[in-house]
Specification:
11 helices; 12 strands; alpha/beta; binds magnesium ion; binds iron/sulfur cluster; eight-stranded mixed sheet
């Protein structure tokens, strides 16, 4: 049997926490071996999408398929065989690593949770290469998390996530709780591991510049919905949605000439509340290009190549105005 081509298929995912519409109809596919960056501001619902995929929360509606299997409502017991297929790395390793467990026990935990009985010796033999793979010495297995730096602790989280050889890794802001000085090395480690091992990845981040070297595809989320999806190349070269354009205008770029000619587009107000999202286009209260129709009509998704943008102004060939060059009149 040929393996299912897609690591992850999310269809019409909805997650409401009481009146809070955290996720409101998200559809996203990640083929095996590819990296999709899910980008958006804090409060946009992107972490909730990741949590639904690993079943930390059960969605209000919609489906999550892992390698073609619908896992949305599987019981804990029936989920077990699928558990090793998906792993998650959380934002803050200080909160996600049990302080009473030795690093060796932490890294080996997914094997235990998958119901594998292994001897202590076998465990140590499995853990050592995992630690080395993330740039830590094997002796670290006999330490406690608090004896390590933040960057080392996040490497431990990555080793734990990869020991089950997952097909899909969810990385939820994996570097944003770390010192700026170690963020790049942890990001590079993830990129190297992804290239070597070839797992698919949902890389959740608020920082578009962090995805430039890691992501194959980008999905931009705003107030619980996707506003644009596409290849990294297309989105960086020709972002179609005004929100994506604004995010890109604020991200630093490596090229000093490009940097000098850029004006960040200021979005002004904070993200509106997910309790009561704006009517029509949810971005309209901050969009520099908003016009009458935006308040009354929900914009349809216009296909652009393999992706889409949801804005009334985007044409079917993917072109439209650019807030970075639009006349502020
Ligand atoms: Fe802006 Fe209107 Fe497009 Fe929404 S639909 S992004 S408010 S122009
Ligand atoms: Mg988050």
């Amino acid at each position: 049997m040929t393996p299912h081509p897609n690591a992850l298929e999310i269809a019409d995912l909805v997650m409401h926490f009481g009146p809070v519409r955290a996720v409101d109809g998200v559809s996203l596919t990640i083929p095996r071996g590819r990296v999709t960056a899910l980008v958006g501001e804090s409060g946009s619902g992107k972490s909730t999408v990741g949590r639904c995929v690993v079943r930390l929360v059960e969605p209000t509606a919609g489906t999550v398929r892992i390698a073609g299997t619908d896992v949305t409502h599987l019981s804990r017991r029936r989920l077990r065989p699928h558990r090793g297929a998906v792993s998650i790395v959380f934002q803050d390793p200080a909160a996600s690593l049990d302080p009473r467990m030795l690093v060796g026990e932490i890294v080996a935990e997914p094997l235990r949770l998958a119901g594998k009985r292994i001897s202590r010796r076998e465990r140590d033999a499995r853990v050592a290469p995992q630690l080395e793979r993330v740039g830590l010495r094997a002796e670290v297995a006999r330490r406690y998390p608090h004896e390590l730096s933040g960057g080392q602790r996040q490497r431990v989280s990555i080793a734990r996530a990869l020991i089950s050889e997952p097909m899909l890794l969810i990385a939820d802001e994996p570097t944003s709780a770390l010192d700026v000085s170690v963020q790049a090395s942890v990001l590079n480690l993830l990129a190297d591991l992804q290239r070597d091992i070839g797992f698919a990845c949902l890389f959740i981040t608020h920082d578009l510049s962090a995805v430039e070297y890691l992501a194959d595809d980008i999905a931009v989320m705003y107030l619980g919905q996707l506003v644009e999806t596409g290849s990294r190349e297309r989105i960086f070269a020709r972002p179609a949605h005004p929100y994506t354009q604004a995010l890109l205008s604020a991200a630093p770029v490596a090229d000093p000439v490009r940097q000098r000619h850029r004006q960040p587009v200021l979005l002004g107000d904070d993200l509106p509340s997910a309790l009561d999202p704006p009517s029509g286009c949810r971005f309209r209260t901050r969009c520099p290009l908003a016009f009458d129709r935006c308040a009354t009509e929900v914009p349809e998704q216009t296909m652009i190549g393999d992706g889409m943008a949801a804005c009334h102004l985007v044409q079917s060939d993917g072109t439209g105005p650019d807030v970075r060059t639009a006349d502020p009149s």
